[in-house]
UniProtKB/TrEMBL annotation:
Its cofactor is Mg(2+). GO terms for molecular function: metal ion binding; phosphatase activity. Substrate binds at D19, D99. Keywords: Hydrolase, Magnesium, Metal-binding. The keyword Metal-binding applies. The lineage of its organism: Eukaryota, Metazoa, Chordata, Craniata, Vertebrata. This is Phosphatase, orphan 2. PANTHER family: PHOSPHATASE, ORPHAN 1, 2, PYRIDOXAL PHOSPHATE PHOSPHATASE PHOSPHO2. InterPro entries: HAD-like_sf (IPR036412), HAD_hydro_PyrdxlP_Pase-like (IPR006384), HAD_sf (IPR023214), Pase_PHOSPHO-typ (IPR016965). Belongs to the HAD-like hydrolase superfamily. PHOSPHO family.
Length: 241
C-alpha cells in the first residue's frame, strides 16, 4: 500500500518557468515582438516550437540550452524533499505531470541526480532534429474544456492510477503538489483521503481558496506549502498515521 506523489514541474520543483527561462539564450535575452505576439491562448506548446526554431536559427546550440536549464534554482527545500522521498521510496511512488518538455526536465533532474527517483514523467515530448533545433510536440489530445489543448493533467492522472490498479498497485492516497492554473483540473477530482498541496501565493492556492466558498467544496484536504521542508513534515505525519 503506497502513497502516490504527483508533482508539477515549473514553479513547483524548480523556482521558475523553464519555457520562459530559455529566452535568456536569445540575442539580447529577449524574443522579437512578432514572435512574442504570435502566442494564442491554449496553444503554448505550438508557441514554444516557434521559440525553439528561432533559437536554433540564431545559432543557439544544445550545450548552451542545457547550461541555461541547469542554472534554474530549485524551489526552497525541494532537494531536501527529494532526499527524504528517496530514503522512503518503499512508501512512495512519484510521478511528474508537466507542461514543460521531456528534454528540459531530464536535463534538470539529471544535473542533481534525482532523475531515477521518479517512476514516470508525463510531459510534452521534445527532441533535437538533424539541424540541431529543439522540437516539441503536444503530449496528447483530449476533450477537457478546462485545460490547454496539449495536456489535461487529470486525464493523465486518472489513466496512470487505473493502469497501476490493473497491475495490482492500489494507492492509499494521492498527494498532489503544484502551483498553477493547469493543476486545478486534476486537484478537483481528488477524493476524500487525498491531499492537494498548492504552493502558497500561487494561482492554484488562490483558485482553491475561492472554490472553498462553493456550496459543494472539494472532497480532498488542502495543505499549502512554501518550502519542500513543510512537505516533508506533512509526509512524515501521513506515514505515521
Amino acid at each position: 500500500m503506497k502513497i502516490l506523489l504527483v508533482f508539477d514541474f515549473d514553479n513547483t520543483i524548480i523556482d521558475d518557468n523553464s519555457d520562459t527561462w530559455i529566452v535568456r539564450c536569445a540575442p539580447d535575452k529577449r524574443l522579437p515582438i512578432e514572435l512574442q505576439e504570435s502566442y494564442q491562448k491554449g496553444f503554448w506548446t505550438e508557441f514554444m516550437g516557434r521559440v525553439f526554431k528561432y533559437l536554433g536559427d540564431e545559432g543557439v546550440r544544445e550545450d548552451e540550452m542545457r547550461r541555461a536549464m541547469t542554472s534554474i534554482p530549485f524551489s526552497p527545500g525541494m532537494l531536501e524533499l527529494f532526499s527524504f522521498i528517496r530514503k522512503n521510496k518503499e512508501t512512495f511512488d512519484c510521478i511528474i505531470i508537466s507542461d514543460s518538455n521531456s528534454v528540459f526536465i531530464e536535463w534538470i533532474l539529471e544535473a542533481v541526480n534525482f532523475h531515477d527517483m521518479f517512476d514516470k514523467v508525463f510531459t510534452n515530448p521534445a527532441a533535437f532534429n538533424s539541424h540541431g533545433h529543439l522540437t516539441v510536440e503536444n503530449y496528447h489530445a483530449h476533450s477537457c474544456k478546462r485545460c490547454p489543448k496539449n495536456l489535461c493533467k487529470n486525464v493523465v492522472l486518472v489513466e496512470f492510477v487505473d493502469k497501476q490498479l490493473q497491475q495490482g498497485v492500489n494507492y492509499t492516497r494521492i498527494v498532489y503538489i503544484g502551483d498553477g492554473g493547469n493543476d486545478v483540473c486534476p486537484v478537483t477530482f481528488l477524493k476524500k483521503n487525498d491531499v492537494a498541496m498548492p504552493r502558497k501565493g500561487y494561482t492554484l492556492q488562490k483558485t482553491l481558496s475561492r472554490m472553498s466558498q462553493n456550496p459543494e467544496p472539494m472532497e480532498s484536504s488542502v495543505v499549502t506549502w512554501s518550502s519542500g521542508v513543510e512537505i516533508i513534515s506533512y509526509l512524515q505525519f501521513l506515514i505515521k498515521e
